[in-house]
Design brief:
This protein has a single domain, classed as Electron Transport, Fmn-binding Protein, Chain A (Pnp Oxidase, Chain A). The protein is elongated and about 55 Å long. Helices cover about 30% and strands about 35% of the residues. It has helices at about 5-15, 60-65, 95-105, 105-115, 125-140, and strands spanning about 25-30, 35-40, 50-55, 70-75, 80-90, 150-165, 170-180, 180-190. It is built from 5 helices and 8 strands; from the N terminus they run αβββαββαααβββ. Strands 1, 2, 3, 4, 5, 6, 7 and 8 form an 8-stranded antiparallel sheet that branches.
């Protein structure tokens, strides 16, 4: 089993255990100044290539990924005593993938993504709420078009670390590095 298949299985275990927001992952990027930034995003799919997530391309993370298309992500599920770290290169998903996910989101989330200048300084939320109401009214129930500034990314995993909590802090850590189509595993000391 590949480490990404294990990640997908552990995510399902966390969901079954009642973990709140099991898809939440900390995503770290690096700015042009070389300084890292980290925030929580939602994993919206795992396959043999890596992890998918969606955001505003003009947000801080979007700008950082445009300049340095590399990231790291961490999942942690206390309920199941697992953690997974993933590192790799990042690329934008095809527009069709972004469209499909955008239109599967709740309408309010679609409207918010359409009007929010994510990561920009604002004085208050009231004008954004008003713009959401105006956009919703203008659409008269029609589908919200996905804004060009919003879409998905694939974090192409080339390093995965699977961590299981152990007694006396002797945690089990399996470190995988992709070499071509093969994952090479090594156990790390806790």
């Amino acid at each position: 089993m590949s480490p990404l298949e294990t990640l997908a299985g552990w995510l399902e275990e966390a969901r079954a255990a009642g973990t709140r927001e099991p898809e939440a992952m900390a995503l770290a990027t690096v700015g042009a100044d070389g300084r890292p930034s980290c925030r929580m995003v939602l994993c919206r799919g795992i396959d043999d290539r890596g992890i998918r997530f969606f955001t505003n391309y003009e947000s801080r993370k979007g700008r950082e990924l445009a300049g340095r298309p590399h990231a790291a992500a961490t999942f942690h599920w206390e309920t199941t005593r697992h953690q997974v770290r993933v590192e790799g290169d990042v690329e934008q998903l095809a527009a069709a993938d972004s469209d499909a996910y955008f239109h599967a989101r709740p309408r309010g989330s679609q409207l918010a993504a359409s009007v929010s200048p994510q990561s920009e300084i604002i004085d208050e939320l009231a004008p954004l709420r008003q713009r959401m109401r105006e956009l919703d009214g203008a659409l008269q129930g029609a589908q919200v078009p996905r804004p060009a500034h919003w879409g998905g990314y694939l974090l192409r995993a080339n390093v995965v670390e699977l961590w299981t909590s152990g007694a006396d802090r002797l945690h089990d850590r399996l470190h995988y590095r992709r070499q071509g189509d093969v994952w090479v595993a090594r156990r790390l000391a806790p």
